[in-house]
Amino acid sequence: MTDQDINPPLTLKDIARRAGVSLATVDRVLHNRPGVKPDTARRVREAIERNAFQPHVAAAELARGRLRRFAFVMPSGPNLFMQQILSYLSEMSAWLAARRLAVQTVTTDVFDPTTLASTLESLGEGFDGVAAVALDHPSVRAAINDLVDGGAKVVTLVSDVPSSRRHHYVGIDNIAAGRTAGALVGRLTGAKPGKIATVAGSIALRDHAERIFGFNQVMMSEFSHLELLPVVEGRDEDERSEHLMMRLLREHADIVGLYNVGAGTPGVAKALIESGRDKQVVFIGHDVTVMTRKLLLQGVMDAVISQNPGHEARAAVRVLLALARGEPILSEQEKIRIDIVMRDNLP
Q: Which residues pair with 74 in a beta bridge?
């Protein structure tokens, strides 16, 4: 488990230092008082804008007298989508500081319920809010409930635990995402019969289980000429996913479609390429990353079911802050949209 602090608090003194002026000068500019040269006033306003500093919000939070602390519990390992969420959190440092918020990331093995529950339990009373990529398991559910009982606001991120007393879920409708993947696989493979492979991180992850459920619904009801192979679990690991995919390709020469439910995309793609079947198998996966962008451009992947990691990072923080303040959550603003991305509409 590793921890990382995202941001220090930002103050009027910080703005004064970055603009190269006195605190009194910043105060005059903020209140439109005379006695400041136009060029100096411009530098102050640029420093405020550049650092996304909102003095009225900052003053209100400062009057509250203490920093609010949020923890983000994220998967360890090379999951590019999760790394994107962390990157966007880092970019929010000025926004967070203006509201006297400190975000700490905690990485752990989210596929192991004992490890994940222990990580959640270790947060104790040190945080006002917790956002967690969660495994739907009794021990994890109990750990979330303990955090809530201890006064923390808890948000599940990307993968939900709806049976817990978490306050909110931030993520896409995963059943709809799976149905979308099913429609793409079925339509792109066409009328020819064959088998469909499904690689998941873990069916114990709620988001993966729901995607598989939606995928199977569509495949069985609309594309019954295609045979679904049993799901294999790669734990979102590239090497493990590659090994599992190579085994499937060896055992089933008639695979015509593939749905990769989570991460591990580089490994799955490597198996397809090395087997020489990357142009024969319809390949649908998730999330626009450096790797999936490359695979789409190469024609190895046919389409990606996308969700915006920046929106998820911002939504999780905004929801936790609203919960901590006792303010309403703007549900329409925080709704995470599902997009279909192909080579021809890459963002």
A: 107
User: Does the pLDDT value for residue 178 go beyond 70?
Assistant: yes
Phi-psi region of 206 (alpha: psi -120 to 50; beta: other; left: phi over 0): alpha
Convert the pLDDT of each residue in 219-270 to its tens digit.
999 999 999 999 999 999 999 999 999 999 999 999 999 999 999 999 999 9
Residue 265's φ and ψ, nearest 5 degrees, are -60, -40
**Maximum CA pair distance of the chain?**
80
| Structure letter (DSSP) for residue 345 | G
Strand 255-260 versus strand 282-286 pairing type: parallel
Q: How far apart, in whole angstroms, are the C-alpha atoms of residue 13 and residue 96?
A: 16
What's the mean pLDDT when you consider all of the chain? 90
Residue written as token pair 């046919």: 302
Distance set, CA 278 to CA 72, 223, 284 (Å) = 37, 22, 12
Cα of first residue to Cα of last residue in the chain, in angstroms, is 34
67: part of which helix (H) or strand (E)?
Answer: none
- DSSP code of residue 343: G
Rg (CA), the chain: 23
34's tokens: 């005379």
Task: Please state, as a whole number, how many other Cβ atoms lie within 10 Å of the Cβ of residue 80.
Answer: 16
DSSP track, 242-279:
HHHHHHHHHH-TTEEEEEE-SS-HHHHHHHHHHTT-TT
Interior angle at CA 91, CA 87 and CA 94, nearest 5 = 150
Q: How far apart are CA 325 and CA 253, in angstroms?
A: 57
Q: Where are the alpha helices (DSSP H) in 102-137?
A: 113-122
Q: What's the burial of 38, exposed, middle or buried (CB within 10 Å: 0-12/13-18/19+)?
A: exposed
- Stronger pLDDT, 281 or 11, i.e. the higher one: 281
**Is the overall model pTM greater than 0.85, yes or no?**
no
